[in-house]
Amino acid sequence: MNQNKTPLYKRILAILGIVILVGMYVALLVLALIGSPATKDLFFGCVAATVAVPILLWLLIWAIGTITGRHTVASLDAMSSNRQHDKFGNVIPEGEIDTVVFDIGNVLTDFAWKDFLRKKGHDDAMIGRIAKATVESDDWVEYDKGNLTNDEIIARFVENDPELKDILEDAFKNIDGIITKRDRTIPWIKALKTAGYKVLYLSNFSRQALEGCPEAMAFLEETDGGILSFRDHVVKPGPEIYHLLEERYGLTPSKTVFIDDTAVNIEAAINLGWKGIVYKDYDQVKEELEGLGVRY
User: Fold this and answer.
1) Which of 158, 206, 260, 290 is the most buried (most CB within 10 A)?
2) Long-range contacts for 64-69 (Cβ within 8 Å, ≥24 apart)?
3) Which residues contact 264 (CB under 8 A, 6 or more apart)?
């Protein structure tokens, strides 16, 4: 924040303006007391205008700022009032980091595959067996690559455990509800954006999960964009998906921090010059972000 004092000439002009304004009102008040009723009405009219005009101007400036998304003197964001702003009124992040990139599953949402299968009536033993053929298999990444149809992916699961053919086909004919929302996510994103950070997502994610879990994925509209792997047919931890995000959003690796619950994905980001945090819980990530100078 700029600590320079207001120039002396500006302070003198401000004081002079106040003195003139107060003097005019005192003179008008005297005239109102000793003059005609019209003078009294003029005095009260001026007092009312003194209150009403600034309020109307404040509302106008606030409305313009709300519509354009720009920080203004009337902005209702007290948390950023003592922060640096650019020429458009946007908050300038403190420290080195200017972009926060999030993984989605088990970071901004819950990948609730066990509950998903329980709701279909399977016990823990069967869930473990299904998992080996599906979410814990190498074939699960085919969901995220977006190269195969849902039937083709399920066929691969069946190859992993042919005895479960009917169960697997029934369980994964759609995966609506396999991703569930976290209430903290949208406030977290908004807080970072208010503090001036660009907020992106980078996730191995399938079309089926996106379309089948709209409530959980509503936070996407609050971000500045990102990559869901099925759209570009590249997945983490391959370097291609990180480079694609850099190019698409003009990222500077050293000014970017990535938050993911999988260590190998964070290692890949760090190898490309990014900062990285392995997600365990919100408080731990917030503390590590603060260690990198990310304040929100």
Assistant:
1) 260
2) 65/89
3) 237
In this structure, is residue 85 part of a structural domain? no
Backbone phi and psi for residue 110, each to the nearest 5 degrees, phi listed first: -100, 130
Note the pLDDT of residue 50. 72
Per-residue pLDDT reduced to its tens digit, 86-129: 544 556 666 799 999 999 999 999 999 999 999 999 999 999 99
Among 13-17, 180-184, 254-258, the range scoring the smallest mean pLDDT is 13-17
10/84: higher pLDDT = 10
Verify that 64 and 23 share a domain, yes or no. Answer: yes
| Residue-averaged pLDDT of the chain | 87
* 189 in the same domain as 145: no
Task: State the first-to-last Cα distance of the chain, in angstroms, to the nearest integer.
Answer: 15
Q: How many domains does the chain have?
A: 3
Helical segments of the chain, H only: 8-34, 37-68, 113-118, 124-133, 141-145, 150-160, 165-171, 185-194, 207-212, 229-232, 239-249, 263-271, 282-291
Identify the domain containing residue 159 by its residue range. Answer: 123-171
